[in-house]
Write a structure and sequence with these properties.
The structure is a homodimer of 228-residue chains. Chain A is built from seven helices and nine strands, in the order βαββαβαββαβαααββ. Chain A has one domain: Spore Coat Polysaccharide Biosynthesis Protein SpsA, Chain A. The first copy, chain A, starts with a strand and ends with a strand. Helices cover 33% and strands 18% of the residues of chain A. In chain A, α1 packs antiparallel against α7. The first copy, chain A, has 228 residues and is of the alpha/beta class. In chain A, the strands form two sheets. The first copy, chain A, has a seven-stranded mixed sheet, with helices on both faces. At the A-B interface, α5 and α6 of A face α5 and α6 of B. Chains A, B: Pathway: Cofactor biosynthesis; coenzyme F420 biosynthesis. Chains A, B: It catalyses: (2S)-2-phospholactate + GTP + H(+) = (2S)-lactyl-2-diphospho-5'-guanosine + diphosphate. Chains A, B: Homodimer. Chains A, B: Keywords: GTP-binding, Nucleotide-binding, Nucleotidyltransferase, Transferase.
């Protein structure tokens, strides 16, 4: 299955400004992308980076991972993804298409297996009983990953996009399955998300974070992070 | 499967003090408990409330739900749960025992099905290849639900208990499976968790919250809540 991975190459991870410097944020974002691409690859997906700016995935902080094709589109995320959906017509003439955020650093092949299941019908036509759209809600109402097998479904990533995507699916008559995964619900956006990565991550991004001096801070209710 | 549901009957949900009054917190906690008990029941589990104080589950804000047995134990959570584990010896002489937090208001029967799967071996002995302990990590490193099929496993709910429970399982030679669920990872503890309940909940607790005037606030990054 083709898996589109939107990536902000120019101004990544601004909401981590209280934890990391601009150059650290750029490196960290590239490292998370490498982890996501590797997990997609190991789950049998074919990643395809949709970047806001030119960059070379093989010239990143992690050596030896997948080196997928990159398409540059500097429009806002929603427009860029919808352009691909309009061109590919997944579930119509085209195969199913997945869209996976680049900051799902807790993602594992097993989690992606659960997301891709039921959509892997080859030509997108032999799928009786399968959902037209699978959605992984992110924490806070976002949409962290999608699989689209319906030619008229479109995305709208603004605001509480999980609820919008359910509504849009309804409007075009597409059936929806929600995939219940803490790993895929956790996009690493804010300082508190770093704790999740230190607890559950075993990829390059978690290693980079530990190397940068972060560790768990178990005082108080939920565990946070401290930097030495 | 017997499912132990610890419930703080005396001072519930203190970390929601910035959103709800003390009497509202008590009602909200009872309503979440009713939702959790109903989901366990519909997944085929037999709930058993482990309360810090006397109370009558049938005299709650939600009518018509399961009315499980209640055991009162005013010791700290860890001691009270370990006393039951020592008595029942799940996976030894006893059947598997689940421990599920009372504030998992996003829980569904399907999510509990995934948790209970592999442990439902009747007498706890015919379980070749099944895990000895299944753990659902909560956000921030907690342990939101467990199934124990090993007579020497004990809990320690202090701090980053998910990592502690993995270590304890290692020490007693118990195999561990982690269950990846956003619904079960979301314990409703803090104001930001209320947004998850409004987005995903369809039980009595979500209805109570809407009735109390809460709605989603989609300004900014992740969606929060406002109260009218």
């Amino acid at each position: 299955m083709e898996v589109l991975v939107p990536f902000s190459a120019d101004r990544p991870k601004s909401r981590l400004a209280d934890a990391l410097s601009p150059s650290e944020r750029a490196t960290f974002a590239r490292t998370m992308l490498a982890d996501v691409l590797a997990a997609i690859d190991r789950a049998g997906g074919d990643p395809h980076v949709l970047a806001t700016d030119e960059f070379d995935p093989s010239d990143g902080p992690v050596a030896g991972g997948p080196s997928p094709p990159v398409t540059v589109d500097d429009r806002p995320l929603t427009d860029a993804v919808n352009a691909v959906l309009a061109e590919r017509r997944p579930g119509g003439e085209g195969d199913p298409l997945a869209v996976v955020m680049a900051d799902l650093a807790l993602a594992t092949p097993a989690a992606f297996d659960r997301l891709f299941a039921g959509h892997a019908g080859g030509d997108g036509r032999d799928r009786s009983g399968a959902p037209d759209v699978s959605i992984v809600p992110g924490r806070g109402g976002g949409t962290n990953a999608l699989v689209v097998s319906h030619p008229r479904f479109r995305v709208d990533y603004h605001g509480a996009s999980y609820l919008d995507h359910r509504r849009i699916a309804d409007e075009v008559g597409a059936t929806v399955r929600t995939v219940d995964s803490h790993r895929l619900a956790t996009d690493v956006d804010e300082r508190s998300d770093l704790a999740e990565l230190l607890i559950h991550g075993d990829g390059a991004a978690a290693a980079w974070l530990r190397e940068a001096g972060f560790s768990l801070d178990a005082d108080g209710g939920r565990v946070g992070v401290v930097r030495e």
